[in-house]
Specification:
The complex is a heterodimer. By secondary structure, chain A is an all-alpha fold. Chain A is built from three helices and no strands. By secondary structure, chain B is mainly alpha-helical. Chain B contains three helices and no strands. Classes of the chains: A mainly alpha, B mainly alpha. The interface between A and B is large, with 42 and 50 residues.
Chain lengths: 215, 101
């Protein structure tokens, strides 16, 4: 007699085993599907993040309106920080888009602020260099010329004072000479008058000596 | 002719005081009655005195002219020097403007 109960038990066992295997396979498929979904989500997050980064970099460069050299420096700086940000974003692959966007905004704000400061400092440095290299030498040259000119003017002023003094002395001499000349002319006039009188008296005495002689 | 008559004839009283004194001084040494020789002396004296006065007038006039010429020369020199100083100052002003520009 065949032990049917044992065969039945074995079939049941085999059947349950088969069922467990099928359920296991189904679970694996579901887990794989879930994993793929999560991977796709993470990939999408990363791609969106990179797009936002690129746009942000363009905006940063445009807003700062810096020279190509400065822009290059800033971009290199931003690129370094971007790598850090990507690492962080990848580390949070399972998080939501909103969280990633918030974190990204935080990074971007920090990067833009630092870039702005760096840009301002470089601009200020450039102005300092221009002042030091171009404006200061010109200013110093002008100051040196000004000192020379002031010395020259001072010398001229001294000469002018001396001239004035000499001129004053000469002018006094000229006045004195003119006054003296006038006085001499008066004396000459007196002698001329005297001469005329003596001429008259000579004629009168001539008339006495020679009454016929008419003058 | 007497000395008084001569004085009247020469009309010395109407002459300037300076001449009156000089002529009267010259006549003081002469006698009251004048000979022709005295008259000649007076004539020579008047001639010499007139020549001296004329020469003095010329000399004083020359001296006055020389002094006036000196005064004019000094004035002209001062004007020229002022002009030269003006040119120097103008040049320096231009130099200063060139530096400022």
């Amino acid at each position: 007699m065949v032990d049917t109960s044992s065969e039945s038990q074995a079939e049941k066992y085999q059947q349950k085993k088969e069922e467990r295997r099928e359920r296991r396979n189904e679970n694996v498929t579901e887990r794989d599907a879930s994993r793929r979904i999560k991977q796709d989500n993470a990939k999408n997050h990363f791609q969106q993040t990179m797009l936002r980064f690129n746009e942000a970099i363009d905006r940063t460069v445009g807003v700062l309106a810096v020279t190509p050299d400065i822009a290059k420096g800033l971009l290199q700086d931003i690129a370094g920080k971007t790598e850090d940000a990507i690492y962080d974003i990848n580390a949070w692959g399972a998080r939501t888009n909103e969280q990633a966007a918030a974190k990204l905004d935080q990074f971007l704000g920090k990067i833009v602020g630092e870039a702005q400061s760096a840009g301002d400092k470089r601009k200020a440095d450039a102005v300092d260099r221009k002042v030091k290299n171009k404006i200061n030498p010109r200013r110093e040259r002008v100051q040196r010329e000004q000192v020379k000119l002031e010395e020259k003017i001072e010398k001229l002023r001294a000469q002018l004072e001396l001239k004035k003094s000499e001129e004053s002395s000469l002018a006094n001499q000229a006045d004195t000479a003119a006054t003296e000349a006038q006085a001499l002319r008066e004396v000459a006039k007196g002698h001329q008058t005297n001469s005329t009188w003596f001429v008259t008296m000579r004629h009168r005495i001539g008339n006495i000596i020679n009454p016929d002689h008419t003058t | 002719m007497t000395k008084i008559e001569l004085i009247q004839q020469l009309k010395i009283e109407s002459a300037p005081e300076e001449i009156k004194e000089e002529v009267m001084g010259f006549l003081a040494d002469m006698p009251d009655e004048l000979s022709s020789d005295h008259i000649q002396q007076v004539t020579d004296y008047l001639f010499t005195a007139q020549a001296n006065e004329a020469e003095l007038a010329l000399n004083y006039t020359d001296a006055a002219n020389a002094l006036e010429q000196y005064a004019d020369a000094v004035d002209r020199n001062l004007v020229d020097e002022d002009r030269q100083i003006g040119v120097v100052l103008h040049d320096n002003l231009e130099a200063a403007q060139n530096i400022v520009n």
